[in-house]
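To whoever is covering the structure queue this week,

Two jobs came back overnight. Logging them here so there's a record in the thread.

Job A:
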Amino acid sequence: MPPINDSDRDWERFGSTDPYFAVLTAPEFHGKISGAERARFFQSGVDHIDTMFAIIREHLDPSFAPERALDFGCGVGRLLIPLAARCSDVTGMDISPSMLAEARHNCDAAGATAVRLVQSDDTLSALNGEFDFIHTYIVLQHIPVARGETIIRGLARRLAPNGIAMIQVPYTGGREGLLSKALYWTRMAVPGGRQAVNLLRGKPPGAPVMQMNPYSVTRLLDIVAAEGCHDVHIRFSEHNGARGVLLFARKHPAPIFS
């Protein structure tokens, strides 16, 4: 029997119906955005990549200048375009064909025509070679934890020596109050619950669920350490009420023992 809620299927529904809002859940990004809203959306990607590089250069590698970069869960290409301005070889990976098609359009329109776009799976089978920079932000939370941990391990394994990964995960679910938690549980776990709650909220019965799965930070550290990433820096994050971490991990020789 298929799962009640399939995150891959739901993400393709988001990609085909409301891709920009699915990437950044702010009201102004509903539908096919244009004008000032579109400019703000893509400027947020430039600002984000600028911040990531600044943190890396301050805390891990002052001369960080990657050639090959991967954005896992690239969505519509918000971060691929600024990455392509910094790196000679950029790959975007997403589970949704509709997201990838929109990313192709956006990258080409911005002149980032050399960006490679591939569909993801849990084994990252479409990837070739190693990367100097691997990035995934507000993505893994939408994937069930067991699958997400497999993906994190695969991403860390594909880091080049001295390459750096930025892996963001939440450690809280972001839903406060018993009613909110109960409705989410009903949509996720009860047969017919998704349809019932959607109707209660005035949505189509089959409207997709945006999962919010908290991860263990300890497990995350164990995974990247096992893949040879022994130099790390952690920053806290908060997104739509969910507290999390941004883990910057460099593939580096074994830790110091005393």
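Job B:
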Amino acid sequence: MSTEKIRTIIIDDEPLAREKIRTFLEAEDDIEVIGECKNSTEAIASIKDLKPHLIFLDIKMPGMNGFEMLENLNLKILPAIIFTTAYDKYALKAFEVHALDYLLKPFDRDRFQLTLNRARKHLSSKQIEDNNNKILEALNDLKERKVEEKEVSKSDKYLEKIVIKTSDKIYFMKTSELEWLEASGNYIKLFANGASHLTRDTMNAMEKKLNPEKFVRIHRSVIINSDFIKELKPWFNGEYEVYMKNKTKFISGRTYKSNIEKLLS
């Protein structure tokens, strides 16, 4: 960058974090801090207007986080970026895989200096385009991880299969095939495909295991799969007649009126 100073913007929602970086940079003769931003909206405007060579970017900020800010910049060439983060294991893995610079909070002056020197080398060797590609690859990795994590957490949170044990075999029933459940003493009776099966559980426990977007508790002893409802008819005192596709009829409990109304909305 010859004798031109490295134009730098600090982006962090914490005033003390911005102050710490600014204080460290004051000792660097080749750095010029041209702006500070406390959120991603301010940062996008400042980067486009001030055109910095280098930015210190906090990952976790209210509203748009640091990654989302980069996606919304819409710049062909990004500034050199030093990411700052308290702890995000997926982000750190992506940075390490793609050889991107980051500062793990709390960092000291030695670690700061090491990272800053790497940024200088990127800028002096004209490796901005290469750095761009690394950042884009890291962002794609993080997106894929988020999608995978959502899918895993969703499958972990709610039952997809129920184990059915009989006297001579054990098999699995998909919850998507389950039409309704009824309390039966210390057991729950499961109805699916024209047959019923018993499993040892409680209604309260089972209600928590089933996806509430599909399964609705309409009575203290009945949970139904909304995919198998044919029609609903208002009954008395906030109760409803619930007709299933196989012509089975239930009367909802008054205390479960809000569950029915949520289903109707």
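Note for Job B: The chain has eight helices and 15 strands.

Please reply-all if you pick these up so we don't duplicate work.
Q.
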